[in-house]
Amino acid sequence: MKQTILKYIFAVTVLSSAVSCSKYLEVTPKQSIDAATALENDEDLNALIIGGYSILGRGSMYGTNFLMLPELMGGDDICTWRGTFTSFREVYNKRMATINEEARRTWVSAYDGINTANLALANLDKIKDADFKLQVEGEAYFMRGILHFELVRYYAKQYVAATAATDIGIVIKTSPTNNEEDAFQILPRNTVAQVYTQIINDLTKAANLLPEENDFRASKYTAYAFLSRVYLQQGDYAKARDAASAVIESGLYVPNASVSAVFSNKNTKESIFEIQQTDQNNAGTANDGMATFYASLPGIGRADVRVNADLPDDFYEASDLRKSEWYYIGTGARAGNTYCGKWKSFSQNLPVIRIPEMYLTRAEANRRLNTNIGATPAQDLAMVVNAVRTNTTAPSNPTLDDILKERTRELLFEGLRIHDLKRLRLPTGDYEWNDNSLVFPIPQREVDATKGVISQNPGY
């Protein structure tokens, strides 16, 4: 299966590229071929799904933006942007224009991936192998679910139960664009509540359809891990706890003894889902990628994201191995500056979600609910913080603040910063958690092309 993934990873294939461009929701066909007629058998559908994984690995997706932009936007007390890219500087400064390139390409790629998933779901009858049909269906629901989730977190306000039914979210897209006629459909934005309902429905279906193990592709527990994130973002702590517990109790994932192993080795037992990269195929080859922007090493990296000099000392105990292995001081022209050591190689895989997050989520939820489902908060915290892994000791009776501090220490620079600040209703610098500047603008070309049916966000 690994060879199959690498065979198709270089392109989304004609099956997907035939249905992606720049009209409404950025899914107008580039060619006149009807996409539905191009999908004929199991191999075609497998190629389409592999194309979907390729989209997830783009620099506009998990290859860079979904992992880096949340840290830039919430970076006031953790990092500074030192690079020359105006689009990233605007994100860091919370001063994006409606033509911001990161806002545009993230929107475009996400709906491209959603369309790929919708094409697969619309053509399941072409698959002859029953088990493979269930897998493809599950993978398509998984991709569609996580991409709607990322979109609503960037382009809409934080989920608040009291206002989610009226807050404007993003466009829910559940039917494929097969041809020119489909491409001219104009759909308005749905509410935040409607989007979250769709996300949960898709990821729940994925969890029920996917196998427990699926090589380097999404599995049942990948879907549960993302469900845990979704529920936590909503503040539904019981469901976040239970989804995290399902992943933990599967027994398939364990924290590595070394905190650096998950970033320096591929597909370790700690990683629940990661973007597959090679020397030949990685986001860095297109002047994108996590190592490109984070690393400050000979021949590797632009050092555009500089860690605040006092962060390692302020956030970590002196003996904490995460401090010594995840942060380093630059040399040469960058001597004295601090950088994040999680992203050091263009060809490294990019962990998107790791088992320590599940332990931290279950610990937080149990503490908030005063329950001990699966384990006590102390037991879960000790799986992340212990003498072997971090060279530190977890509190014997951790408070909620203890757990949240460990979550920050463990997950910094992995794409959760601004999302955690929003759900916890904490500011970043002078910006409150619900400030309009912490929401991406809808790409102006999208507003113009739909004559305002897709409305712009407040403040833009």
UniProtKB/TrEMBL annotation:
Asked if the record carries the keyword Nucleotide-binding, the reply is no
Q: Tell me the ranges covered by the SusD-like N-terminal domain, including all copies.
A: 24-232
- Residues passing through the membrane, by range: none
State the superkingdom.
Answer: Bacteria
Q: Where in the cell is it found?
A: Cell outer membrane
Limits of the RagB/SusD domain: 347-433
Entry annotated with the keyword Membrane: yes
Name the InterPro entries for this protein: SusD-like_N, SusD_RagB_dom, TPR-like_helical_dom_sf
**Which keywords, in A-to-Z order, does the entry hold?**
Cell outer membrane, Membrane, Signal
Return any one Pfam family short name.
SusD_RagB
Concerning SUPFAM superfamilies, the annotation shows: TPR-like
Recorded family membership? Belongs to the SusD family.
Protein name according to UniProt: RagB/SusD family nutrient uptake outer membrane protein
Species: Polluticaenibacter yanchengensis
